[in-house]
Amino acid sequence: MLNVTRTYLPDLKRYQSYVDRIYKSGWVTNNGPLVGELESKLAEYLGVPELVLVANGTAALEIAYRTLEIDKFAVTTPFTFVATTSSLVTNGINPIFNDIDPRSLNLDPKLLKQNVSPNTSAIVPVHVFGNACDVDSIELVAGEMGVKVIYDCAHAFGVRYKDESILKRGDISTMSFHATKLFHTIEGGALVINDPSLVERARYLINFGIENEESIPHLGTNAKMNEFEAAMGLCVLEEIESILDQRATAYSRYLSGLSDFVTLQAKNPDGSSNFSYFPIILESEAVLKRVEASLKANGINPRRYFYPSLDTLSYIEPRQICEISRGISSRILCLPLYPGISSQGQDKVIKIILKSLF
Ligand SMILES: *Cc1c(COP(=O)(O)O)cnc(C)c1O
């Protein structure tokens, strides 16, 4: 069996040593010492001044909207995981879908001007599959129109843009540390808030809006990360260089076997790669279904990331149509890619794909 991803489990003895510490202190959650330690180690590793850990990537998006008081409308991409959109709707914000560029698969900044209106309070782009958005163009429009930018960086762990962490761009960047992601804490997420005066507010929002024993100035929620999750993150972070190396090796194996035969995402040359996904774009949905069926018949489970295009969601009114996103969604497939994937397994994937193409 080869699945699209496999959760990275770090050295058990290291994890056990953190669990021993938790048992000794009895401190299991509520902004414990391991959460603090992971916040500072991650901030240092990623090259940002400060980072706020939360329960998951969806909560990170929601806390970002509430911290910046986003309301009414937000312009976002239809080609992403559903949480980018559903988190807006949950918070009473109407998503306006901006179609994607068919090469980068990111929100097409040339369409932004026609989608941002006086009722828009934010742009919510995603660095899809870790490919950096055209952040300069996005921020130019955002600046002109006076709207906030929240980047969903769920796929962009460690990505650098023009030699700086991509997390430094926009007003807030959010991350997901779910077990399926490149770096994980089982469940978890983070915010990088580029206005330091807003960090305290975000921290209150994560903890029910409570400021201290006597004051609850904000309408908050519970989005805290616990100590067992932070311990997992500390262990995975210790092994991150090896994780990235193994991914890069596996990535290049697919690249040399497939790049002449399928279409690949066009990478932004100003952004670095983190080898988090290997999506292939096929000629048509019929070809995709043929490839998918042959892989599955051989115990290989790719995933249709991202399908369906989110402009087709039944709960979004009024209906919007993003033709390019729908087209790409119907014929894109992510191949199994994770540290420890065997080269024989990858060669089998390549062979089956090539055989079902022709
Ligand atoms: C995984 C993911 C999320 C949600 O993160 P969770 O930690 O699972 O809540 C949001 N946006 C994108 C683009 C994702 O891939």
Structural account:
α1 (12-25) runs antiparallel to α8 and α10 (285-297) packs across α12 (343-357). The two termini are 25 Å apart. β7 and β8 form a beta hairpin. 38% of the residues lie in helices and 13% in strands. The longest helix has 19 residues, at 240-258. With 358 residues, the protein is α/β, with parallel strands linked by helices. Pyridoxal-5'-phosphate is lined by residues 56-58, 80-81, 83-84, 126, 152, 154-155, 176, 178, 189.
Give the arrangement of secondary structure elements:
Blueprint lengths: L1 E2 L8 H14 L7 H14 L5 E3 L2 H11 L5 E4 L5 H9 L3 E4 L14 H4 L4 E5 L10 H11 L2 E5 L7 E2 L2 E2 L6 E5 L12 E5 L5 H8 L20 H12 L1 H19 L20 E3 L3 H13 L2 E2 L21 H7 L2 E3 L8 H15 L1
Parallel strand pairs: 1-12, 3-4, 3-5, 5-6, 6-9
Antiparallel strand pairs: 2-10, 7-8, 9-10, 11-13
The protein binds pyridoxal-5'-phosphate.
Pyridoxal-5'-phosphate (PLP) binds next to helix 3 and helix 4.
